[in-house]
Amino acid sequence: MNKGQITQVMGPVVDVLFEGDYLPLIKEALIVQLNGEPLVMEVAQHMGNRVVRCIVLDSSEGLSKGMEVEATGDYIKVPVGNSTLGRMFNVVGDVI
Fold first, then answer.
1. Any alpha helices (H) in 3-46, and if so which ranges?
2. 51: number of Cβ within 10 Å
3. Could you tell me if 8 and 65 are in contact, meaning their C-beta atoms sit under 8 angstroms apart?
4. DSSP symbol at 83
5. End-to-end CA distance of the chain, in Å?
6. Is the pLDDT reported for residue 78 higher than 50?
7. Whole-model pTM?
C-alpha cells in the first residue's frame, strides 16, 4: 500500500500529503490507525502539491499532524442504511 502523512486536521476534514509518484483517486479509501483500530477516510479533493483532502467517516478525535495514512487502492465501501454515515454523506454503497 502507498503511504502518506496527515498535514492538517480540521474537524472531520483531514489533509494528507503523499510522496513520490502516487496520488490516491477521489473517493478512494484511506486508513489511519487510531488507538490500534483502523479509521477510514474518503478522498474528497486533490489540493495540489501531492496533498489530498479527506472526509473522516467516524470521529476525528485523536487524529493529529504527522500520523501515517495508508491508501487502500480501493473505493470507499460504506454500509448504507437509515442510521449510517453513508446516508448522511449521500454515499452509494452496499446495503447491509
1. none
2. 16
3. yes
4. T
5. 27
6. yes
7. 0.79
Distance CA 78, CA 93 (A): 6
What pLDDT digit, counting tens, does each position of 28-63 carry? 999 999 989 999 999 999 999 999 999 998 888 999
Closest CA to 25 of 8, 5, 43: 43
Residue among 59, 16, 17 at smallest CA distance from 37: 59
Secondary structure letter of residue 95 according to DSSP: B
Per the DSSP assignment, residues forming a β-bridge with 43 are 54
Q: How far apart are CA 94 and CA 16, in angstroms?
A: 27
> Residue 17's pLDDT band (boundaries 50, 70, 90)?
very high
Query: What is the C-alpha to C-alpha distance for residues 40 and 75, in angstroms, rounded to an integer?
Result: 11
pLDDT higher for 94 or 77?
77
- Helix ranges (DSSP H) in 1-96: 85-88
Grid cell, residue 59, equals 470521529
Instruction: Report d(CA 70, CA 5) in Å as an integer.
Output: 9
**How high is the pLDDT of residue 96?**
45
